[in-house]
Design a protein that fits this description.
Helices cover 31% and strands 17% of the residues. The protein is an alpha/beta fold. The chain starts with a strand and ends in a 15-residue tail after the last helix.
């Protein structure tokens, strides 16, 4: 089997070494120097110039390097029959849930205020609201969102999840589809977005959605920047309806140096690094699916093209 690699954040050498250690018989070629593209069986990439996928005529499947299929699926020339395997890496769930839990606790336990108190040499013990009285809502309950929701429920928070079809996670109340959105927002004091970018999620959190949240709600977004209408978020923050936001993803990345988010007193910005992983953990799903193909078994973790993830 031959795999063509177009790496993302990690170097090509990282991926080559991981594949060599775990599947030494696999030949890895680095894009764009892929030799005879008719020989390539698997394309491993995050995004690739439009039309390039069609230049590999004998692909068995495409595997995605990173979470989020939207950038890859934007190519209209991808053959309709070609299976696409989503990125699946336990390390991503670990780092994502750690970032989310940190942001929730940082807000819930008023850590920015305590940091200000320290600078002012001010001893001010505030009452602590027990987690069971803090209503957290997670939008998106896939590999990453589900891990975050479980961790928050384990910490005692009152957790609900909103998703397309419900997930049945123990300790997490399900709100399902468009009909469940407003009720989900109305009960959510800390809102966490871990949704993929699709036609349905684009601009989902707009003025009416923010207005549906309780006054003083806090917004955390680490799924896709396209989820949020930025001007509506700013208006909700500046009016006092929302108490703050922690944002890791943005409609334009890198976030422009002159963007208002950088200096807004109610916004925490991180540079799209809430979820990170190594090549070592990410190659396993690719190797498993290569072996599944060789054994005539169905591929695992494939993308639903219509759903967009």
């Amino acid at each position: 089997m031959i795999l063509a690699l177009k790496s993302g954040r990690l170097s090509a050498q990282d991926w080559i070494e991981a594949f060599a250690a775990k599947m030494p018989e696999l030949e890895v070629r680095v894009w764009p120097d892929c030799g005879d593209r008719a020989e390539v069986d698997v394309l491993f990439t995050t995004r690739i110039p439009k039309g390039e996928v069609a230049s590999f005529p004998n692909l068995k499947f495409v595997a995605l390097v990173a979470a989020g299929a939207d950038r890859f699926l934007a190519d209209p020339d991808i053959p309709a029959h070609l299976p696409i395997v989503r990125a699946y890496n336990p390390e991503q769930a670990l780092t994502m849930k750690a970032w989310v839990v940190y942001q929730v606790i940082r807000h819930h336990r008023e850590m920015p205020q305590y940091e200000a108190d320290q600078k002012a040499h001010r001893w001010d013990r505030r009452p602590v609201l027990q987690p069971r009285f803090v209503r957290v809502g997670v939008m998106g309950l896939g590999q990453l969102g589900g891990a975050a929701a479980r961790s928050l429920a384990d910490l005692g928070y009152d957790v609900a999840g909103w998703s397309r079809g419900g997930r049945g996670i123990e300790g997490v109340d399900d709100f399902i589809g468009p009909d469940g959105l407003m009720a989900f927002l109305a009960r959510t004091e800390i809102l966490i977005g871990i949704l993929p970018f699709t036609r349905e999620t684009d601009r989902l959190l707009d003025g009416p959605a923010f207005a549906a949240l309780p006054k003083g709600a806090y917004v955390i977004n680490c799924g896709r920047g396209e989820l949020i209408v930025e001007k509506d978020l700013l208006a909700a923050l500046d009016s006092g309806h929302l108490s703050g936001a922690a944002l890791d993803v943005f409609r334009q990345e890198p976030l422009p140096a002159d963007h208002v988010f950088w200096d807004h007193p109610k916004i925490t910005v991180t540079p799209h690094n809430s979820s990170t992983s190594s090549a070592w953990g990410a190659v396993d799903i690719v190797i498993e699916n290569i072996r599944r193909y060789q054994n005539g078994e169905p591929l695992r973790a494939t993308i639903d093209r219509q759903a967009g993830y």
